[in-house]
Amino acid sequence: MHSKPNAGVEGDKGDINSEIAIEESTLNSPDGGWGWLVVLGSFIIHAIQGGLERSNGILYIHMRQHFGQSATETAWVLSLYSLICRLVGPISSGLCTRYSFRFVTFLGVSMTVAGMLTSGFVPTVQYLYLTYGLVVGVGCSLSYTACILVVGHYFNTRRGIAIGVAASGVGFGCFAWPPILRAFFEYFGFRGAFLIIGAIVSNVYVCGMLFMPLSKRKLKTKPQEVTLNKDKNETTVSLLPQQEKRIQHFAEAVSCNGQNSTLFSPDKTTAETVHIPKRRFIDLTLFRNYAFFTVCAQMVLFALSYNMTFVYLPALAKDQGISELEGSYLISITGVFDMIARISMSTLLDTKHVKPYRLITYNMILFIIAALTVTIPSLHSFMQFAVICAIFGFVSGTYISQVALILVDILGISNLASAFGLNQLCYGLGMLLGPVIGGLIRDYLGNYYLSFYCGSASTFAAGLLMMTGNIWLRRRGDAL
After folding, report:
1. CA atoms of 12 and 323, how far apart (whole Å)
2. I need a labelling partner for 266 at 20 to 30 A (CA). Which of 206, 278, 425, 470 fits?
3. What average pLDDT does range 83-101 have in this prediction?
4. In angstroms, rounded to a whole number, what is the distance separating the alpha carbons of residues 279 and 215?
């Protein structure tokens, strides 16, 4: 029997020579209980960090007004932030497998707060490339990755619902942040606004306290005792009768030791040797799976359009005669329907009869987003903008909320950490290109129309690319 490498088992690394208690939570996700507090913590982090990122359009306007720089130079701040935030994704997921989710969250929020506080005091926009783009980007990547992965490991049968509820925090934050940011900059100025934003972000420390390792959770079931004795390169494991069916799960749980394990049955008469490979910090071999490759490739194309839309939507609305206040409301409207979609659609797509079509639904959403994006430049009234933003928020919320679940459908839960990190890296590449391309178009043509047309074409190409991956899965018979 061979075990798959487990990319996300978390717990304290004790002495392998000692006797330890492997609780039921190590072998099976609790699917509730303390896990719902973990979901609450993840929801708040999504609301604070995800909602703030979705409000980049508001930050873009005030950064440009404060420093008086061109659209391209100002857009680089937010593009670098988006790139770094996703570029560090594989490292963030690797740290989550080596250390605890709580530790990675604390490290991330510390960097984010430091970056926010210093950003308010910089003399030119170029300094924001370092303080906001780099420092805040790295910090947000660490805490965001941890809050996604910890939910995936606390839930199994309810994973879709749990991740959907946690991710819906982005929609709530997207609703709350735009008018709040506008008020901060109006009443407290550029420096004061960033100081207050840093104070709000510091609440992520409290959320991190909820991310208790599964190995420390006390469940109602009686702990199952095993003994680990290190003898050269082998680990001898004595299993109780009720554990015999969980040998494979146990092998994955101790895979971080990277060695051969001999598993004995309770009567000591039979034994089975299991080679447990050492977990890789970043598993690039996942790209050998063509379906995973297409998911990552289409993510670059989608993110290019997605980030461009949120950065330049308030500015486009302003050019079309919509007031700055109403422009901030558009982001809020998008956030409300994003939140509704993340909860409702995550629940629907995780049901028994709909789940087999989750990959196809995920693919079709890309074509809908492309159609909506191409219509945005033709809008002129606030009501027209509001309707399209509501639909856009709903379909994009459905798309984003399913990323982790799609990766599990394709590669399994044991590869979620590495797959999610690599996917975020590709997402970051697209997030970098979007605002920069849009800024160049604005500087040379004097409007944002062509930016949205290019974004629509990019999303449509993403849908076509992912379709090839789905066909590949169907032909192999690996799709759910």
Report:
1. 53
2. 278
3. 82
4. 18
Of the ranges 66-75, 150-159, 279-288, which one carries the lowest mean pLDDT score? 279-288
How far, in whole angstroms, is CA 94 from its chain's centroid? 14
- Assess contact for 237 and 250: CB atoms under 8 A: yes
Q: What is the mean pLDDT of the chain?
A: 77
Question: How does pLDDT run across 223-282, given as a tens digit for each residue?
Answer: 444 444 444 444 444 444 444 444 444 444 444 334 444 444 444 444 444 444 555 556
Residue 414 near residue 6 (C-beta atoms within 8 A): yes
DSSP string, 101-144: HHHHHHHHHHHHHHHHHHHTT-SSHHHHIIIIIIIIHHHHHHHH
Which secondary structure element, helix H or strand E, spans residue 263, and what is its range?
Answer: strand 260-264
Question: What are the phi and psi torsion angles at 259 (to 5°)?
Answer: -155, 175
Residue for token digits 């609440």? 203
Q: In the prediction, which pLDDT does 451 show?
A: 81
Whole-angstrom distance, CA of residue 161 vs CA of residue 357:
16
> Do the Cβ atoms of 26 and 11 come closer than 8 Å?
yes
Which run of H or E residues covers position 343?
helix 324-349
**Whole-Å CA distances, 390 to 173, 325, 335:** 15, 17, 8
Nearest to 45 by CA among 168, 183, 190, 228: 168
> Could you tell me the CA-to-CA distances from 54 to 181, 277, 311, 333 in Å, in that order?
12, 40, 8, 12
CA angle 80, 85, 89 (to 5 degrees): 140
Residue 422 to residue 18: CA distance in whole angstroms: 35
In our burial notation (b when 16+ CB lie closer than 10 A, e otherwise), range 263-278 reads beeeeeeeeeebebee
pLDDT of 170 over the 80 cut: yes
Cα dihedral sign for 318, 324, 325, 327?
Answer: positive
End-to-end CA distance of the chain: 24
Question: Phi first, then psi: what are they for 66, rounded to 5°?
Answer: -70, -40
The SS3 assignment for 225 reads strand
Residue 294's pLDDT is 92
DSSP state of 275: E
Tokens of residue 55, six digits: 């409000």
Compute the distance between CA of residue 464 and CA of residue 461 in angstroms, rounded to an integer. Answer: 5
